[in-house]
C-alpha cells in the first residue's frame, strides 16, 4: 500500500520540536493513515534514526525509513528551537513524499 504524505505549512507552524509524535512529519503521517482508514493510535518519528513507527488496528506494528530530505526537515525543525524559533521555521518549506507500507 502506498501512502502519499504532505507536510504542510500548518504542520510546520503547529508541530512541536523534539516531539516524536507531534512534529510536522508525525502529524502528516497520521493524517495520511486516517485518509487510508488505517486508524493509527501511535505515530512516532525518530529524528536520529530517520524512521517512523506506527501501530494501527489492522497493522499491529510497522516501521519504515524516511527519505533523506524528510530526515533533513526533521533535523532542521528540531534544531531551530530557542527564543525565536517560530521566525526560524519560516525558512522550512512544506514537502510531499510517498512511502510504501
Mean pLDDT: 79
Overall tally of domains:
1
Distance between the termini: 5 Å
Helix and strand sequence: EHHEEEHHE
Which percent range fits the helix content? 25-40%
Strands across the major sheet, in which order?
A: 2-3-4
Low-confidence stretches: none
Number of strands: 5
Class by alpha and beta content:
alpha+beta
Please state the overall shape, judged from the principal axes of the Cα atoms.
Answer: globular
Number of helices: 4
Radius of gyration based on Cα positions:
13 Å
Query: What characterizes the major β-sheet?
Result: 3 strands, antiparallel
Would you kindly provide a written description of the structure presented here, covering whatever features stand out?
The protein has one domain (2-100). With 101 residues, it is α+β, with helices and mostly antiparallel strands. It has four helices and five strands, in the order βααβββααβ. It is globular and about 40 Å long.
Protein traits:
three-stranded antiparallel beta sheet, alpha+beta, single chain, 5 strands, two-stranded antiparallel sheet, 101 residues, 29% strand
Amino acid at each position: 500500500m502506498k501512502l502519499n504524505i504532505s507536510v504542510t505549512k500548518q504542520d510546520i507552524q503547529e508541530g512541536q520540536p523534539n516531539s516524536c509524535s507531534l512534529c510536522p512529519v508525525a502529524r502528516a503521517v497520521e493524517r495520511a493513515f486516517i485518509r487510508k482508514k488505517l486508524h493509527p493510535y501511535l505515530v512516532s518519528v525518530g529524528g536520529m534514526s530517520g524512521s517512523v513507527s506506527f501501530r494501527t488496528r489492522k497493522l499491529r506494528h510497522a516501521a519504515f525509513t524516511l527519505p533523506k530530505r524528510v530526515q533533513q526537515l526533521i533535523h532542521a525543525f528540531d534544531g531551530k528551537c530557542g527564543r525565536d524559533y517560530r521566525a526560524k521555521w519560516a525558512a522550512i518549506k512544506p514537502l510531499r513524499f510517498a512511502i510504501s507500507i
